[in-house]
Amino acid sequence: MKVIGLIGGMSWSSSLEYYRLINQLVAEKLGGLHSARIILYSLDFDEIERVQREARWDDAAAILIEAGIALKQAGADFLVICTNTMHKVADAVVDKVGLPLLDIIDATGNAIMEQGLHRVGLVGTRFVMGEEFYRGRLQKHLGIEVLVPGEEEQA
Protein backbone atom coordinates (compact mmCIF):
# COMPACT_ATOMS: atom_id res chain seq x y z
CA MET A 1 0.00 0.00 0.00
CA LYS A 2 1.35 3.43 -0.93
CA VAL A 3 1.93 6.05 1.75
CA ILE A 4 -0.26 9.14 1.40
CA GLY A 5 1.24 12.48 2.39
CA LEU A 6 -1.55 14.80 3.51
CA ILE A 7 -0.83 18.53 3.61
CA GLY A 8 -3.53 19.61 6.04
CA GLY A 9 -4.47 22.12 8.69
CA MET A 10 -6.32 24.38 6.24
CA SER A 11 -8.58 24.01 8.27
CA TRP A 12 -8.09 21.16 10.70
CA SER A 13 -11.72 20.15 10.15
CA SER A 14 -11.18 19.61 6.41
CA SER A 15 -8.06 17.55 7.22
CA LEU A 16 -10.16 15.43 9.56
CA GLU A 17 -12.67 14.84 6.77
CA TYR A 18 -9.94 13.77 4.34
CA TYR A 19 -8.48 11.40 6.95
CA ARG A 20 -11.90 9.93 7.72
CA LEU A 21 -12.96 9.47 4.09
CA ILE A 22 -9.66 7.96 2.96
CA ASN A 23 -9.68 5.43 5.79
CA GLN A 24 -13.35 4.66 5.24
CA LEU A 25 -12.69 3.91 1.56
CA VAL A 26 -9.67 1.72 2.38
CA ALA A 27 -11.70 -0.24 4.94
CA GLU A 28 -14.54 -0.72 2.45
CA LYS A 29 -12.17 -1.85 -0.30
CA LEU A 30 -9.87 -4.10 1.73
CA GLY A 31 -12.20 -5.14 4.54
CA GLY A 32 -11.31 -6.15 8.05
CA LEU A 33 -9.35 -3.67 10.10
CA HIS A 34 -7.39 -2.21 7.18
CA SER A 35 -6.62 1.49 7.22
CA ALA A 36 -4.62 3.83 5.01
CA ARG A 37 -0.93 4.48 5.46
CA ILE A 38 -0.99 8.26 5.99
CA ILE A 39 1.51 10.88 7.07
CA LEU A 40 -0.11 14.21 7.99
CA TYR A 41 1.68 17.55 7.95
CA SER A 42 -0.70 19.99 9.64
CA LEU A 43 -0.08 23.66 8.89
CA ASP A 44 -1.08 26.64 11.04
CA PHE A 45 -4.20 27.87 9.25
CA ASP A 46 -3.80 31.40 10.63
CA GLU A 47 -0.58 31.78 8.65
CA ILE A 48 -2.15 30.30 5.52
CA GLU A 49 -5.23 32.53 5.76
CA ARG A 50 -3.03 35.61 6.13
CA VAL A 51 -0.93 34.91 3.03
CA GLN A 52 -4.11 34.13 1.06
CA ARG A 53 -5.78 37.37 2.16
CA GLU A 54 -2.64 39.36 1.30
CA ALA A 55 -2.33 37.56 -2.07
CA ARG A 56 1.19 36.39 -1.18
CA TRP A 57 0.93 33.25 -3.27
CA ASP A 58 4.71 32.75 -3.54
CA ASP A 59 4.82 32.61 0.26
CA ALA A 60 1.87 30.22 0.28
CA ALA A 61 3.65 27.99 -2.21
CA ALA A 62 6.83 28.05 -0.11
CA ILE A 63 4.90 26.92 2.97
CA LEU A 64 3.30 24.01 1.12
CA ILE A 65 6.59 23.09 -0.57
CA GLU A 66 8.25 22.87 2.84
CA ALA A 67 5.44 20.60 4.03
CA GLY A 68 5.68 18.47 0.89
CA ILE A 69 9.44 18.04 1.26
CA ALA A 70 8.98 16.98 4.89
CA LEU A 71 6.35 14.44 3.83
CA LYS A 72 8.62 13.11 1.08
CA GLN A 73 11.49 12.73 3.56
CA ALA A 74 9.12 10.93 5.94
CA GLY A 75 8.29 8.37 3.25
CA ALA A 76 5.20 9.65 1.42
CA ASP A 77 4.71 8.25 -2.08
CA PHE A 78 2.35 11.00 -3.22
CA LEU A 79 0.71 14.15 -1.88
CA VAL A 80 -2.81 15.37 -1.23
CA ILE A 81 -3.54 19.03 -0.46
CA CYS A 82 -6.51 18.94 1.93
CA THR A 83 -8.23 22.09 0.67
CA ASN A 84 -9.49 23.47 -2.64
CA THR A 85 -8.04 26.96 -2.30
CA MET A 86 -4.39 25.98 -1.95
CA HIS A 87 -4.52 24.09 -5.24
CA LYS A 88 -3.71 27.52 -6.66
CA VAL A 89 -0.07 26.68 -5.83
CA ALA A 90 -0.27 22.95 -6.59
CA ASP A 91 1.90 23.07 -9.71
CA ALA A 92 4.71 24.80 -7.78
CA VAL A 93 4.47 22.17 -5.04
CA VAL A 94 4.71 19.29 -7.52
CA ASP A 95 7.62 20.94 -9.36
CA LYS A 96 9.68 21.56 -6.21
CA VAL A 97 8.82 18.48 -4.16
CA GLY A 98 9.08 15.90 -6.91
CA LEU A 99 6.17 13.74 -5.78
CA PRO A 100 2.92 13.23 -7.67
CA LEU A 101 -0.17 15.04 -6.40
CA LEU A 102 -3.65 13.59 -6.29
CA ASP A 103 -5.23 16.82 -7.52
CA ILE A 104 -8.76 17.57 -6.30
CA ILE A 105 -9.51 19.64 -9.42
CA ASP A 106 -8.63 16.73 -11.71
CA ALA A 107 -10.62 14.31 -9.53
CA THR A 108 -13.60 16.69 -9.63
CA GLY A 109 -13.29 17.03 -13.39
CA ASN A 110 -13.15 13.27 -13.87
CA ALA A 111 -16.28 12.83 -11.73
CA ILE A 112 -18.06 15.49 -13.79
CA MET A 113 -17.08 13.80 -17.06
CA GLU A 114 -18.14 10.36 -15.77
CA GLN A 115 -21.63 11.79 -15.31
CA GLY A 116 -21.65 13.11 -18.87
CA LEU A 117 -21.79 16.74 -17.80
CA HIS A 118 -20.06 19.54 -19.70
CA ARG A 119 -21.43 22.58 -17.88
CA VAL A 120 -21.39 22.92 -14.09
CA GLY A 121 -21.82 25.48 -11.34
CA LEU A 122 -19.01 26.11 -8.89
CA VAL A 123 -19.58 27.34 -5.35
CA GLY A 124 -16.63 27.70 -3.00
CA THR A 125 -14.47 30.25 -1.25
CA ARG A 126 -13.93 33.61 -2.93
CA PHE A 127 -10.48 32.41 -3.95
CA VAL A 128 -11.86 29.26 -5.59
CA MET A 129 -14.67 31.08 -7.39
CA GLY A 130 -12.79 34.26 -8.25
CA GLU A 131 -9.37 32.98 -9.27
CA GLU A 132 -8.68 31.25 -12.57
CA PHE A 133 -6.84 28.18 -11.23
CA TYR A 134 -9.90 26.01 -10.53
CA ARG A 135 -12.20 27.03 -13.38
CA GLY A 136 -9.31 27.30 -15.81
CA ARG A 137 -8.01 23.80 -15.14
CA LEU A 138 -11.47 22.28 -15.64
CA GLN A 139 -12.01 24.28 -18.82
CA LYS A 140 -8.54 23.87 -20.32
CA HIS A 141 -7.90 20.22 -19.48
CA LEU A 142 -11.39 18.78 -19.83
CA GLY A 143 -13.46 21.31 -21.77
CA ILE A 144 -15.92 21.74 -18.90
CA GLU A 145 -17.75 25.07 -18.84
CA VAL A 146 -17.75 26.39 -15.27
CA LEU A 147 -20.27 28.95 -14.03
CA VAL A 148 -19.80 30.87 -10.78
CA PRO A 149 -22.17 33.19 -8.92
CA GLY A 150 -21.76 36.89 -9.63
CA GLU A 151 -19.85 38.95 -7.09
CA GLU A 152 -23.06 40.33 -5.56
CA GLU A 153 -24.39 36.78 -5.11
CA GLN A 154 -21.26 35.55 -3.30
CA ALA A 155 -21.35 35.62 0.49
Can you characterise this structure?
It is a single chain. The chain has seven helices and five strands, in the order E-H-E-H-H-E-H-H-E-H-H-E. With 155 residues, the protein is an alpha/beta fold. It has two domains: 3-102, Rossmann fold; 105-153, 3-Layer(aba) Sandwich (Rossmann fold). The strands form two sheets. It has a three-stranded parallel sheet with strand order 2-1-3, with helices on both faces. Strand 1, helix 1 and strand 2 (37-42) form a beta-alpha-beta unit. Keywords: Isomerase. InterPro entries: Asp/Glu/hydantoin_racemase, Asp/Glu_race, Asp_race. Belongs to the aspartate/glutamate racemases family.
- CATH hierarchy class name of the largest domain: Alpha Beta
Distance between the termini: 42 Å
In which range does the helix fraction lie?
40-55%
Give a short account of the largest sheet.
3 strands, parallel
Overall body shape: globular
Number of separate domains: 2
Task: Tally the beta strands.
Answer: 5
Q: Helical segment tally?
A: 7
Q: Structural class of the secondary structure composition?
A: alpha/beta
**CATH domain fold name of the largest domain:** Rossmann fold
Rg, alpha carbons: 16 Å
- Name the beta content range: 5-15%
**How would you write the strand order of the largest sheet?**
2-1-3
Rounded mean pLDDT is 94
